[in-house]
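README: folding subset

This subset contains proteins for which both the sequence and a predicted structure token string are available. Records are stored as plain text. Below is the entry for Mevalonate kinase (328 residues), shown exactly as it appears on disk.
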Amino acid sequence: MTRSSAPGKVYLFGEHAVVYGEPAVPCAIERRARVGVEPRDDATLRVHSDDLSLDGFTVEYAGSTDGKPDIDVAESLVDAAMGYVDEAIAQVREVTGEPDAGFEVTIESDIPLGAGLGSSAAVVVAAIDAATRALGVELSTAELAERAYQTELAVQDGQASRADTFCSATGGAVRVEGSDCRAIDAPDLPLVIGFDGGAGDTGALVAGVRQLRDEYSFAADTVASIGDIVRQGETALADGDVAELGRLMDFNHGLLSALGVSGRSLDSMVWAAREAGALGAKLTGAGGGGCIVALDPTPETETALRYLPGCEDVFPAELADEGVRQLE
Ligand code: MEV
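--- output ---
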């Protein structure tokens, strides 16, 4: 078995706007997806997972996601999980020049699915790394990030940025603007994550923002203003000014709400964090449901979220300096 892991991430700033060429700053966190692969002697793909925040599924299919597993979870989540693995393996077949390669794939993840912590990017990065290595091909980090990005692009109907996949492949804090992706320095950040137990449909949320942006010039201005916040945020990061970062995160959340991608439970976690004295709080990722990220050097936000009805899990997050990791 060849195994790799890759980290999830939070967005300090810039999700959604990054799809339209504005910069974004995601940071990898120490929550990982681990993918093990074993080449098969036929072209079949078999995927096992016990903990993608699904009840556990085992699926056998050959190159398409048409055959759905018979399990009692939201179909869109299963489609998403299977679609990403399927497309990741298509990239592996292409880059290794082995169109008939088949695999037994086992996924373990401590990153909730579709919750804004980059679960799909982490699974895709780890799967491509493990499967290419299993076929004797070693990709550079840049090539791995590119293949992972192509995977997300294919699954998300051509609407994806490089942010999630690049951050998961390289680790650390990164800045992404179009195809320009680079590591940046970040101070130690007191990140606290709240999770409402739900998930958002990234494709639908991205499409909703696109529609608003096409329809209203002020929605297009809102997207551009998020870009301004990110640029100001980069200065605050470089200065290590955590209080200013918090203020900018609050502002960023307000603009994401205006674009229709927040929701009642995300807003209520954001407000609980602010009322507990967090320096700032915002949703992270595509939105709809899932996670918020707050900045709080004290235990107050964690305590407030722990007792907030509707918040299912809360944990402090450490920055992951290392991206993809070869386990064996
Ligand atoms: C999703 O994690 C982040 C979005 O900006 C989409 C993307 O960048 O591909 C909403």
